[in-house]
Design goal:
The chain has 7 helices and 12 strands. The chain is an alpha+beta fold. The chain has 3 domains: about 55-105, no CATH class; about 115-160, Membrane-bound Lytic Murein Transglycosylase D, Chain A (Roll); about 165-280, L,D-transpeptidase catalytic domain-like, CATH 2.40.440. The strands form 2 sheets. Strands 3, 4, 5, 6, 7, 8, 9, 10, 11 and 12 form a 10-stranded mixed beta sheet that branches. Helix 2 (about 55-65) packs antiparallel against helix 3 and helix 3 (about 70-85) runs antiparallel to helix 4 (about 90-105). It is globular, with a radius of gyration of 30 Å.
Length: about 280
């Protein structure tokens, strides 16, 4: 009889132990995570930071940059931007990709579609740029030319520029894309558009104008390298201009204002006919 009671007690103990184990499992698996989420929603409890899965790609890209592997580093950062947009390194990745893209574009580093044009007798920069679907400014910058003089048999780096522009008014940025791939981004310093202007529009670049002392000049003018650059689109009022903090906003010509160095780059990589998308 005593043994039977002992067996019953043991069974009761095991049943209780089993209940405790099941309860503990349920707590860890279901109840505790739900309680944690509810506390975060209510603004209570310790915030557990999620691991930054994009950082290892960013760190690897930086190592590649230090080794001089610009293309591999850029491609790793583009991967980060595509698949880990929540990463804390995302903004730095966009900035570095833009700088690398511009360095690759204007340097002599071989790239797909980048070719060497041998100047023929009677050719001019304007005809070379038109035939190769590029810009005069790109030819001058990529070939380190301080003036527009060219000579027969001179070898010039050329590249067909087929970039498009996306203007985000709410994001206060101008973004350049090569097809659907991010190329570079520029901050908008100020915006002054007509009151009736639609918040969205699609147009193209119609004219690139260089100004010196209030007068338009061409690329052969000796003041061309130090002049002010504007880019006009087919949408009245949508003009890319150099930002001037000394001019009152109400008296400015309509447009999107950017820093001088950024306007120089836009003038270099954009050509007449380039697509421009304006978004909120």
């Amino acid at each position: 009889m005593a043994r039977f009671k002992l067996l019953l007690a043991f069974l009761a103990f095991m049943i209780c132990l089993g209940g405790i184990v099941v309860a503990f499992f349920y707590w860890k698996k279901f109840a505790e995570p739900e309680l944690f989420v509810n506390r975060q929603i209510a603004g209570e409890g310790e915030v557990r930071e999620k691991p930054d899965l994009g950082k290892r790609h960013f760190d690897k890209a930086i190592d590649l940059l230090k080794e001089g592997e610009l293309v591999s580093a850029r491609d790793r950062l583009l991967y980060l931007m595509t698949y880990f947009p929540e990463s804390k390194t995302h903004n730095d990745a966009r900035r570095i990709v833009g700088e690398v893209n511009m360095d690759l574009l204007v340097s002599r580093i071989p790239q797909p579609n980048k070719t060497i044009h041998t100047v023929r007798r009677g050719e001019a920069l304007v005809t070379i740029a038109r035939r190769n679907k590029t810009t005069i400014d790109y030819i001058m910058r990529s070939n380190a030319k301080a003036n527009t003089l060219i000579y027969p048999d001179e070898e010039l780096t050329v590249y067909p520029l087929d970039l498009r522009v996306e203007v985000s008014l709410e994001g206060e940025r101008v973004t350049i894309y090569d097809g659907d791939t991010f190329f570079k981004e520029y901050p908008i310093r100020d915006t002054n558009l007509p009151p009736e202007f639609s918040s969205t529009a699609t147009t193209t670049i119609k004219e690139k104008v260089a100004w010196h002392e209030g007068k338009p000049i061409n690329f052969q003018d000796p003041n061309y390298m130090d002049c002010t650059k504007w880019i006009r689109t087919g949408k009245i009022g949508l003009v890319f201009r150099e930002y001037d903090p000394d001019i009152e906003k109400g008296s400015q010509t309509w447009g999107i204002m950017l820093d001088s160095a950024d306007m120089e780059e836009l003038f270099t990589v954009l050509r007449n006919g380039s697509r421009v998308d304006l978004k909120k």
